[in-house]
Structure formats: structure tokens, C-alpha cells
Amino acid sequence: MDQALSARTVNQDVRELGALVGDVIREHASRDDFETVETLRTASIAYREDDAESREGLYQVLDRLSPERESIVARAFTTYFELINLAEERERVRVLREASHEGTLDDGLEAAAEALAESPDRAERVLSDVLVEPTFTAHPTEARRKTVKAKLRAVAEHIETLDERRLTEKERTQVERAIDAEVVSLWQTPQVRTRRPEPTDEARNVGWYLEHTLFDVIGEVYDELETALEEVFDRPPSVPKLVEFRSWAGSDRDGNPFVTPDVTAETLDRQRRVVLSRYLDALSDLSGVLSQDGSRITVGEAFEKSLAADRERLPGVARAAEDRYPREPYRQKLQLMGERIGRVDDVRPGGYDDPAEFSDDLSVLARSALENGAESVVEEHVNPLRRQAEAFGFSLASLDLRDHRKNHTEAITESLALEGLDYGSLSEAERVETLTEAIAQDEPVIDVTRYEDEEAELSDTTRTVLELFDRLAGWQAEYGTDAIDTYCISMTEEASHVLEVLFLADQAGVITLPEYAGIDVVPLLETEYALSGARRIMGTLFENEVYTQTLSARGGLQEIMLGYSDSNKENGFLAANWDLYRNQRRLAEIADEYDVTLRLFHGRGGSISRGGGPMNEALLALPPESVSGQVKFTEQGEAIAEKYGNPRIAERNVEQMVNAQIRSRRRALDGENELIEEQWTEAMETMAEAARTEYRDLLESEGFVRYFEQATPITVIEELNLGSRPASRSGQRTVEDLRAIPWVFSWTQSRCILTGWYALATGIDAYLDDGGEIDTLQEMYQKWPFFRTTLDNAALSLARTEMEIAAEYATIAEEGLEERFFPRLESEYDRAVSLVAEITGRESLLARRWLEESLRRRNPYVDPLNLLQTHLLKQTHRTETEERTLRLTVKGIAAGMKNTG
Prior knowledge:
Layout: H1 10-28, H2 31-48, H3 56-64, H4 67-102, H5 109-115, H6 120-129, E1 131-136, H7 146-164, H8 169-187, H9 199-232, E2 246-247, H10 261-287, H11 301-313, H12 315-324, H13 329-342, H14 355-371, H15 375-392, E3 398-404, H16 405-417, H17 428-440, H18 460-479, E4 486-490, H19 495-507, E5 511-512, E6 516-517, E7 520-525, H20 528-532, H21 534-542, H22 545-553, E8 557-563, H23 564-571, H24 573-593, E9 597-603, H25 615-620, E10 630-635, H26 637-644, H27 647-669, H28 678-700, H29 704-711, H30 714-719, H31 740-749, H32 760-769, H33 774-783, H34 785-800, H35 803-810, H36 817-840, H37 849-873, H38 880-897
Parallel strand pairs: 1-2, 1-10, 2-3, 3-4, 4-7, 7-8, 8-9, 9-10
Antiparallel strand pairs: 5-6
């Protein structure tokens, strides 16, 4: 690699960081502890490399360990993985820099610009349609403590310094000493949380990535796209807002009673303060740059008019600015802009009413500076700030409210009962009619402030729901509608579930039809019943008078969320993927019939089992008819840290998403629909139905829930302080009741990631047994992005599965359960591996060599943690030290697998 770009390699980083962990163990534990860890490490590697016939050496060491030494072993391997993850992150940055230097990034913004090159008019249309909305959630899959993450980030910055800067020997020694200090501190820091994070902690965690990474890189994304367009067009099209960020942290109440209206209010306030502070800092920096002498430039009429308006608006501040900067008009303007930012949340008048006013001022400033030849200053300093204002507004990230539909039904049933109406006994059609009439009439039907009446016969759920809607109107008045303008309904299965939220919003004054609607109401379709009933649900709504008025007030846009996690848990990997794909096409057809613009909201998790995988590939694999230009998707748990913790990787992720959406929208506008042969869809129908039947049969088999409980560390995961939300909806032990995250997390820990492949082989076999041809499947893989992405994602889950390790967990299950279920899982796995290899034509399951190398590097170090975990799980009585160690093994395996749920 070009030494001008990088001074190190991933192998060097891994070797030196691993050695550093060994040094720390020797110095801060003991030499015997170090020797124990080394014995486990070398024995594991020997078995993986076929230099040992069995893992007997590992078992013998583990059986002799004291509880204290077990703890040290778990901490050693966990610390190793935390540091190795940094080494691989650094390698990703090296590869990106090298590819950018050589011009070989094929899915960046240069490629997006080239895809638009044929027609300037078409480019303008595509760009005006595109809006990418990553939505950060507080779902509890981030296994690391905030303190640990801070130390790791410090180590990462030091490694970057070693890699990218030319240092003297003295400087290098200082940096290496700093790394050593951080690793020692990391070793001595508790890895396991002593308390559950509160919702406000989760909101601050999400906010950190927005404030400290994405805020700084968003301007670079636009600059790169604009530069690429200038290379392609003589007169490049203007680039509108293409990206904005949203969040559920602090506003998602589904299954989390701790997310109260007060938490939401606190989140709104904190995000407002954070983003305004960043703008003030940026304006201060800009003032140090735009120090032009007013006697040597002509600022222009628009600037003069804008400055005069500010002087009239804030005369005292204007006089102070003139005294401080007597001949520097730009600095005067910037001081006044800073004052207006400072008064956004102030009782004093003169603040900006909305982010658009702030952006307009920046545009006026940019045009004036350009007219005076300061193009480089505008590109480097003004334009990034203007893009930040577009993307982050005055809210940092717009909040989506979310709650389970049963809570709205309960609130309305109880509230209408107080008015003499028995809503609970009404049929679905009667509910739709009642709600429609109530929304259409001018007078309110219920009093949403009734939650304050302690004498009213209302449940806690009803009081919370009413308070939320009552305060929503106030939040929008204080922070702006854009700060909190979406309400998502979990487990939507009927049109009335959507109208219930519309009714509550109407009663609270959040909507006033037909003129005004302050929220988008978003049904979340996640069950098979809901997905198969999409036409029934959406058709009823699109033909409903008050709902069509709402859509009209919201610009004719309907957002619909698709739930990948629960769909997978209910139907299995293959059937869920097919259901989601074909229902996206169905929803697009319905929206087109009713002349409604569709925005799909993909509720994807971090793992393959919950819709994860490379986002750009997922966007390119969407049915073209569903690509309206706007797209929204969740970013969750450890995936947030992995994708947005490092600024260069964060920028790359945003670029890839924008690239994919630009290309997808261009194809949709050009009518480049997928050429899906009828035999392909027939093959998928056959495979999906057989896979669903097999998957449901497994889940419903007598004893399977007990096997899951005993052959995975689910009971340990439920006790971990990962997030503020409970692991199950009702506390009962059923697969249906268990949340998708701990369901996937548990199987991932046991290295049997059946959630990403189970029943795939059964489905393919059913198609082949029915007369299908392997050649057809190979053709589908080569020519159909949906099928290729689905199979590649399954291959990734298969590659990360280790059935030999999973067998160790199976032995923990009670007598009879192991024999009943493990051979079934193993047979399905073996057949899936063979069939995927045959269809893809690859010798390896993985298409990416770097990923294969990463797994090869990690597996020998994850194995001892798995074996230690099973060793502890088999014990019927564990000491307090052993309980802590068991929880630590969960963290370590999560770090080693780079995945939780």
C-alpha cells in the first residue's frame, strides 16, 4: 500500500494490540493468568488449523479454572476483541483512502453522478425526488458501556495518528505510551453495566453520533457530489437536501413504559440545545474567516437588505456589532445571525422562526462572498454550514413517536366510555365509521386533558396516551412541527388502528382538517396477517374522507413501515424476505392506484436475521416500482457504532446510501423495471411456503421453547443491562412474546444463527423436488438482485454459524431435547451450505475476501469464550463472581462476532 497514505497494516495492528493485552495481563493480573490465556489461545488455534485432533486441551484447562481465573480469561478475550475491532476499523479506513486515491470506489458519489450523465433534466428530477432518512433507534443491542466506548475511541484516534502522520521517534513513543495507558485503563474498567441505561441515556448515546460525527461529515458528502456533477455536466444541476436524520430514542414507547412524555420533552430540549450550540460554534469560526474589509468589496443589494432587516430587528446588537467590526459587514451579519440563533429558544424576540430562515441567511452570505471572489471560502466554510442547517434543522434529529396499537385502542375505549360510547364492542367497520365521524365534526368528542383528573376512571396506559397527545401540540408549538411530526403504530392490523391515532391527534388539536395536519400517521405492518391484508388496510384508508384530507394536508405522501424483525421471527428467514419483497410491490401498486406518493420505512435491525446487511445493496435490491425517491430505515444498536463511530466510515456509509437511492430512483423513472420471469416468482412461492411450514413446525414442536431456553444464554441476556426496554412484551416465555432482538441475540451467542438460514434448504429442496432446476436458481442468483441479496445474506449467517460450537450448547439441554432438535438443525445447516455453494458457484460461502479473513482471524479467539460460557451455563449453582463472568462472556462473544441481535 502507498506509504504516503498508510504507515501500518491490519496484521501489524492486530499483532501489536494483542501483544499489549498480553503485557497488561502479566503486569496487572499475574504470569500464571497470562499463561492460562496463552494456553487457551494456542490450543484453540491448533484445533482450528488441524494441528490438534480435538478440543480436549481446551476443556482440561477450563475445567481446572478457579472462578477468579475464569473472570480474567473472559476479560482477556473480551478486551482483545474490543481492540481488534479497532484494528479492522482502521483497515476499512485504509482501504477507503486507497480506493479513493486510485479512483476505484464503484459505489460512491462519482458513480452516482455518472448514472445521471445522460440527461441534465433527468438528473434534476432524480435529485429533487431523493431523500434518505436514516432513523436511529434505542433498541438494546449495544453491549458496550459508554465509558468503554470512550476509551476505545481514544485508542482508535492514537492508531490513526500512527498510521497517517509522519512522526519522529519521540512522537511515536509518546503515542504508543498513550495507547498503553488507555489499554491499562480499559483493563481495569468494569465491562458490565451495574444498572440498566435509562431512556435519556440512550437518547444521549444516539445524539453523540449525530453531534460528533455526522454533523461534521454531512457537508463533505454534498461537496463530493457537487464536485462529481461538475465533472459530468457543463452546467451541473443544483443539489437539494438529500439526507436528513431521525430518531426514536426518547420517543419510542412500544413495550417500554419508561419512555414517558417527560423523557420525550427532555430529549427534544437537549437536542435543540446541542444543535444550536454547534451552529454558534460554526458562526464563530466563520467570523474568523469572513473578515473582508467593507471598503474593498461590494456586498450586493440582497446582502444589504438582509443586514438592514437584522439591524431593524436587533438594533442594540447591531450597534455593538458595528462598534466591534466597523468596516467588516460580513462579521456584523454573522454576529447578528449568532444572536438570532441564541434567541431561538429565548423569550426575547428576534430569533429565527425556523431553520429555513437561517439557511436563507447563509445563502445570502454565500452569494455575496462569491460575487467578491471568495469561492474557496464559501466552499470550505459557508456551504458545509448551510448543508448542516438543512440536514439537522433546529432539532438535530426529528423524533418519531411510536406505540403499540392496543394502547391507543385502550385509551379510546376508556375515554369514549366516559362519554357513554361503548367503543370496545364495535365491529371493525363500526369503529372506522365512528372515528371518521368524530374526526370530521368540529367539536371535540373527548377531553385529552382528562388524564390530569385523578378521579376519572382511567388506566395508567390511557392517562399516558392522552398526556402524550396533549403535550404533542405544545412540543410542536415550541420546537417546530419538523421536530416531532411522525407517529408510528406497532402491530397495525386494521384501518381503525390508524384512524385511532388520527382521532387522538384531532382531539388534541395536532390536526385541523381539512387545512392542517401536524403528523404523518405511519402503520407498521409486521405480521403475516397485516402484510397479506395490506390492500384491505390501505384501501380502506385511501377511500376514507378524513384520511384523504390528512394525506392532502401532508403533501399526498404516505409512509408505511415494514417490520423485518418480527416478520422473520414469525415466518423464518426465507418466507419473511419473500413476504416483504412482494408486499413492497403490492403497496406500490396500491399507492399508484390511489395516486399517493409512497415512502417505505424499512424497520431493519443490525443482524441479517432482522433485515441487516449492507444498506446500499439492500436499497438497490428493492423493487423499482416501490422506489419513489424517499426512503427511510432504522439504524440500531451496535450497528450505529460500527457505521457512524468513525467519521470516514460514517461519510462512506452516507455516500453509499445516497448513491444507491439516486441510481434506484433513476432506474424507476426510466422505467427500468425488473425483468422477473414468471418461473422465478413461482419458484419463490414454492420455496417460501415450504420454508414457512418447516420453520413454524420447528417453533411449534413440543419442547422447542425449552430447548431454546436451555441451549442458548437467553436467561443471561434477559438479565443484562443492555437497554431500558424489557426483553419481552409480557414477561412470558414464548417465542411469540419474546422480542426479536433477544431471540436473535441468543442464537448468535450460541453460534447457531438459525434465524438467518433455517428452512432455507427445506424451501430449495421443495422447489427441486417439485420439478425445479438448479440452473433456474443459478440464473435467479445472477440476474435478480432480490434473490442474490437474500442468498448472500443467508450465506453470511451460514458462514458465521459454527455447528460444532452450537453442539456444546445443545448438550446443556435436558435429556431428550438435544436428540430431538440438534440433529434437525444440523441437517438443515449442512444442506443449506451445500445448496448455497451450488447456486452461487463459489467455493467459499462469502463473496467478500476481507470478511472471510476477519472470521478466520476471530474464530479461534471466540471459541474459548463460547466454551467458557457453556461451562458456566452447565453449573446449577454459580457464585457471584461466576455470574459476573457469565455476563462478561456475552459481551466478549458479541464483540468477537461483531453482532448481537
